[in-house]
Design brief:
The protein has 3 domains: 84 residues, Immunoglobulin-like (Sandwich); 66 residues; 128 residues, Glutaredoxin (3-Layer(aba) Sandwich). 36% of the residues lie in helices and 25% in strands. It has 9 helices and 15 strands. The strands form 3 sheets. A 7-stranded mixed β-sheet has the order 10-9-13-12-11-14-15. The longest helix has 30 residues.
Length: 333
């Protein structure tokens, strides 16, 4: 009788535990290194929540959320995180590099999955331009490499809705590349090394007056196509300043072309001042013909042109990439 009673007691306890209502909130905690703000914000189209940071950058809060992707921002930098009620997620990051974020706790797997996706977005495999420049056989090989890469990420304990969302994005990307290859390849062929570069004319210069590509003939020209709202663009600014300083007395001009809309004109001027940006700082305004000629659909984009106005590299390495100095050295700049 005692054994039966003990069994029933255990069964009842287990049943009650198994029937426990799901948690209707997510717990989010962590630490923001080198924080320059008192709060961080979790937001989406339908949600906005400020979270106070302690003096050491640590924080903890509970959030009632719908399952989905949210933006975490400190007002300047931002990254994506996945939240769902029931999560007990801890994150640690440094404001000097929002791209590298460490997750632990319940919800780690879904957020690691997103982090891998963000990392992929910085890979050449995520840049359509690198596909459209390839000869047909090389394009087919590259597509096989892309498809293999996209399916290798672990999906264990990843939220099914997130898996579905990214799978849809993968399908769209593959369809876009395969559908547009022929027409884009034809355009890219005209942008090969040694081809005359498209020109920009009379872009407003931050220092006064206007500047055209022809004004810089006789020098190599390294062009940064960017915008004030672009996070990856801003991340390249310190590296670009280092390169400009190192090659200050060399036969090369550094040109930054802002593609900001007219209503961002004041923001463009302010950022140049705040970041103490050098080189030729130009504002394209409504003239987007240069970007259109180079088929620029993602920024930042870097271009290198030789002293005769011919293309050296229509998709040159970024300032943060050691390959850029190797390229400069190979040209004896």
């Amino acid at each position: 009788m005692t054994k039966v009673f003990l069994f029933l007691s255990l069964f009842t306890t287990t049943l009650l535990m198994g029937c426990k209502e799901p948690q209707d909130y997510a717990t989010l905690s962590g630490k923001i290194q080198n924080a320059e703000t008192l709060t961080i914000t979790i937001m989406s189209n339908e949600y906005n929540r400020d979270i106070k940071l302690e003096d050491d950058g640590s924080f903890k809060d509970t959030l009632s959320v719908k399952s989905g992707v949210y933006t975490l921002t400190d007002g300047q930098n931002k990254t994506a995180i996945f939240l769902a009620n029931g999560y007990d997620l801890t994150l640690n990051l440094d404001v000097t590099d929002f791209r590298n974020i460490e997750f632990s706790g319940i919800g780690k797997e879904s957020n690691d999955y997103i982090a891998e996706r963000i990392k992929f977005s910085r890979n050449d495999l995520a840049n359509p331009t690198t596909f459209f420049e390839l000869e047909p056989d090389a394009f087919k090989k590259r597509m096989l490499e892309l498809k293999s890469f996209l399916t290798k990420a672990s999906t264990i304990n990843v939220d099914s809705s997130l898996i579905s969302q990214i799978a849809t994005e993968n399908e769209r990307m593959i369809e876009y590349l395969e559908t547009n290859y022929k027409s884009k390849y034809a355009v890219a062929s005209s942008m090969k090394k040694g081809s005359p570069s498209p020109k920009f004319s009379d872009f407003e210069n931050y220092e006064g007056g206007t500047t055209s590509l022809d004004d810089l003939k006789g020098k190599y020209v390294y062009i940064d196509v960017w915008a004030t709202w672009c996070g990856p663009c801003k991340q390249q600014i310190p590296f670009l300043k280092e390169i400009e300083s190192e090659y200050e007395h060399k036969n090369i001009a550094f040109v930054s072309i802002s593609t900001d809309r007219a209503n961002k004109y004041d923001a463009w001027k302010k950022m140049i001042e705040d970041y103490d940006m050098g080189g030729y700082q130009l504002f394209a305004g409504t003239d987007q013909s240069f970007s259109a000629a180079y088929q620029i659909n993602a920024i930042p984009r870097f271009i290198l042109i030789d002293p005769d106005g011919k293309i050296v590299d229509s998709n040159a390495p970024r300032p943060s990439d050691p390959k850029l100095k190797e390229l400069f050295d190979s040209l004896s700049i």
